[in-house]
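Our consortium's second objective concerns turning raw sequence data into structural hypotheses that experimental partners can test. To show how far this objective has progressed, the report includes one record in full. It was chosen at random from the queue rather than selected for favorable results. The single chain below, 413 residues long, was entered without modification.
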Amino acid sequence: MKVSLQAVLSDSHLDSTQKSNQRQLAISMSAVSDATDGNLPLNLCLIIDHSGSMKGRPINKIKQAAVSLVQKLKPSDRLSIISFNHKAKVLVANQIVGEIDNLKKKILYLEADGGTSIDEGMNLGLKEAIKGKKDGVSQVFLLTDGENEHGNNQRCRELATIACFDNITINTLGFGSHWNQDVLEQIADSASGTLCYIEKPEQAMEKFSELFTRIKSVSLTNAYILIELMPQVRLAELKPVAQVAPDIIELPIQREQERYIFRLGNLMCDDSRVVLANLYLANLPLGSNTIAKVQVRYDDPGRGQEKLLSENIPVEAEVQQAYQPKLDSMVQKHILALAKYRQTKIAETKLQLGDHSGAATMLQTAANTALQLGDKSAATVLQTSATQLQSGAELSEAERKKTRIVSKTILQK
């Protein structure tokens, strides 16, 4: 198993008459398998909210979706299941899947009652997931439909950070309209996972299946981008680096000797992870210049190898006296995708401050950006929300969540 790595500037030509040139560097990477590579064993942990608000169709649909997921697992995969309301319980201890009939029964006996303590469920889930993480892909599905009324949101964030260090990915699934989108997004982002929205009970099966398809394509884990910048090159000071595909995630900066380092988590065979870095370049001589070097560090659990390094790719830019732009269309799309997300976040902040007019304007801008990107589905949702605010109406909780999701992730259709 190897890494496919590409690094492309938004415009590889620079104007020598400018004191400083701003460029975006898109770094794309994915796993590449050969004939000897097989599918990695999966270490899956389901953390399921069964509080009283899940009673009836919601819990029944979630149980059906969970059973369907278990049926897709291979006998060599590992599974653990945690159920939580205001307390948490190990429904299925971490084990080889083997015979699934008993596992299905335990899921189907689950009933809805009590309050909600998400961090209690996360704590038990991570303990079980850690038991089976060797030489496989460790993934958590955390599903909840409510606020963390009996728990501590800061503890949730801390547990997500612990999961990251233990190479365990947490995917969060918000069910219905009353879960805290900020908390679930922060959990997923911190643990290199995906935030997914299940608006209606009948969508549970589809969303579980979409997420499962993605995690089954994981082939390499614990991936980091290493970026070495030349002396005349610097990162932007505000939000300099973000993942832009398959989901939007603002990435924190770390330093490792002379290089910047950013954690990505898993690499998939079918989907590239793409990171966008915002650079400023100054005082470069005329002609071709190496402005950066990019490398990926990763683990290959299929071969039991850790901290492998991809090739170290140089990034070239040409300084011209008679400047002629050389724009890259794919990088331009990534820039638009990130702009759509950030514009939506600004709109949400304005809405929280009571500035409905400002929020509507920013959502309209985000809708226009989505159209430029060719994302008609997101444009429709964003435009509808903008129009509603312009008319003086409030956005429902479901509408707010749709607006966030379509700006962030490709799993929303």
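The partners drew two points from this record. Residues 329-352 form the longest helix (24 residues). DSSP finds ten helices and 19 strands in the chain. Both points have been shared with the crystallography group to help prioritize constructs.
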